[in-house]
Design the sequence.
């Protein structure tokens, strides 16, 4: 299996630290709002990487954190006059709902920064003891220049970086490149006691601590969006390698950015979309499929036209699978009546099975070439074509083989092929009425619960002036 490693800028054969096992750490979201559609890309992409490793028989330890203490969370809490934990807890729950709707598997470990403060204090102390960090007025800094390999991931050189930095006279740091490991408490902010006074950790330290605790000193794969390469991942390497004296991560994987209509997504440009908003327009399974139809390292352009085209592609696969299920049921029933052997394949079937096997091999070869999901999907389309042409004339055993094969490959991509149980119109309408009543009574928790429940069943609600309209996704 080959993986493009940002550390070496080339595709490398994957060799695990421990045979048969793979430890993957993916930097998770900062939880101060609903996750946006860009945040969903690393979630979907690296969940697919995980699924492929599982398919290959690896024992996968998948760790992804929630950054639940941060300036943005504190700012939002202050604006709303609530505790920071109220904001982060709410958005962790909302993020989990979105991940579920995107069919992202639950992580093996999903640590929260605020629950790992002791470990962070320990690592910062170790860094101080080893001479890699120092304290000034309640702030602890990492002594960047002392770490010889700084800049190896982002291909930056400290002196070039310095050229772009203006050094403030009041700066208490020994060097402008030093970064914060611990900062002192400010009024109204969450804080924890530490050897350097009340305060809170800087952002980078949490990932070094969590990956060591849940995976080990050296992890197989560290992943995240490409914006994290510098400074976040560069700083993680410096902290971890200075502290542990071991290589931090063997393979670094970074996803490209998702843009909207070829423009950077931003609130001020008015082209910023949450997963929740997009989920009202499209089933999130379509969004997952759309994201996997491009290579994870390329930029991904999100537009209605492109998503519509992904939707049609996915429908083609799902229709073929439905058809296979129907044909299989018919053939099995007919076989039971005639008493024919259920597992007999004709020579024609066997020839087709060989063709299908070659397509499975093509799917695997694509995935093993740095997770080229675009080509892997192309192999599924070829299987669908083969199925559409041959299933009707094949034996029950052959149809069953096709059904299992296509379903298995879809499952690696996290695409669900089972039909959702359809809700009856009157049940949907009764729930919509209950939601309206809940909203009137300002019971927004129940109202949201009903909307989520309907969304799960593929029912999309639209609030219009004429009342609530609904449609099946
Ligand atoms: P954040 O909450 O900003 O730390 O982001 C969580 C994850 O989403 C990180 O891995 C980011 O690199 C990634 N990310 C943020 N914006 C985008 C985007 N527009 N496209 C792809 N990935 C993104
Ligand atoms: Zn991180």
Sequence:
């Amino acid at each position: 299996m080959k993986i493009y490693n940002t550390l070496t800028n080339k595709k490398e054969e994957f060799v695990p630290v421990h045979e048969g096992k793979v430890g993957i750490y993916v930097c998770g979201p900062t939880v101060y709002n609903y996750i946006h559609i860009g945040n969903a890309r690393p979630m979907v992409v690296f969940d697919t990487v995980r699924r492929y490793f599982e398919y290959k028989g690896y024992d996968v330890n998948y760790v992804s954190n929630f950054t639940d203490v941060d300036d943005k969370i504190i700012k939002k809490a202050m604006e709303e006059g609530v505790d920071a934990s109220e904001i982060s807890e709410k958005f962790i729950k909302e993020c989990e709902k979105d991940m579920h709707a995107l069919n992202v598997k639950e992580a093996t470990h999903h640590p929260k920064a605020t629950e790992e403060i002791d470990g962070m204090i320990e690592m910062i102390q170790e860094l101080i003891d080893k001479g890699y960090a120092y304290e000034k007025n309640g702030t602890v800094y990492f002594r960047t220049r002392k770490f010889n390999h700084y800049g190896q991931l982002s291909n930056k050189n400290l002196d070039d970086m310095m050229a772009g930095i203006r050094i403030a006279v009041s700066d208490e740091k020994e060097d402008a490149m030093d970064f914060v490991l611990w900062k002192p408490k400010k009024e109204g902010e969450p804080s924890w006691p530490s050897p350097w006074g009340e305060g809170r950790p800087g952002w980078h330290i949490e990932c070094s601590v969590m990956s060591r605790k849940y995976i080990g000193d050296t992890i197989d794969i560290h992943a995240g969006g490409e914006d994290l390469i510098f400074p976040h991942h560069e700083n993680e390497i410096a902290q971890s390698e200075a502290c542990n004296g071991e290589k931090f991560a063997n393979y670094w994987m970074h996803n490209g950015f998702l843009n909207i209509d070829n423009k950077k997504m931003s609130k001020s440009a008015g082209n910023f979309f949450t997963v929740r908003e997009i989920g009202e327009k499209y089933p999130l399974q379509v969004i997952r499929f759309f994201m996997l139809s491009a290579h994870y390292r390329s930029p991904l352009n999100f537009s209605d036209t492109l998503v519509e085209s992904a939707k049609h592609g996915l429908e083609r696969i799902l229709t073929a699978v439905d058809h296979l299920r129907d044909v299989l049921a018919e053939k099995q029933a007919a076989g039971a009546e005639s008493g024919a052997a259920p597992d007999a394949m004709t020579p024609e079937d066997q020839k087709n099975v060989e063709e299908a096997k070659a397509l499975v091999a093509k799917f695997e070869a694509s995935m093993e070439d740095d997770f080229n999901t675009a080509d892997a999907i192309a192999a599924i389309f070829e299987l669908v074509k083969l199925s559409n042409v041959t299933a009707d004339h094949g034996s029950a055993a052959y149809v069953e083989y096709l059904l299992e094969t296509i379903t298995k490959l879809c499952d690696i991509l996290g695409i669900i092929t089972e039909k959702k149980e359809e809700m009856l119109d009157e049940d949907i309408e009764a729930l919509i009425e209950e939601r309206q009543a809940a909203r009137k009574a300002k019971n927004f928790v129940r109202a949201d619960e009903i909307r989520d429940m309907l969304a799960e069943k593929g029912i999309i609600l639209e609030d219009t002036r004429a009342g609530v309209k609904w449609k099946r996704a």
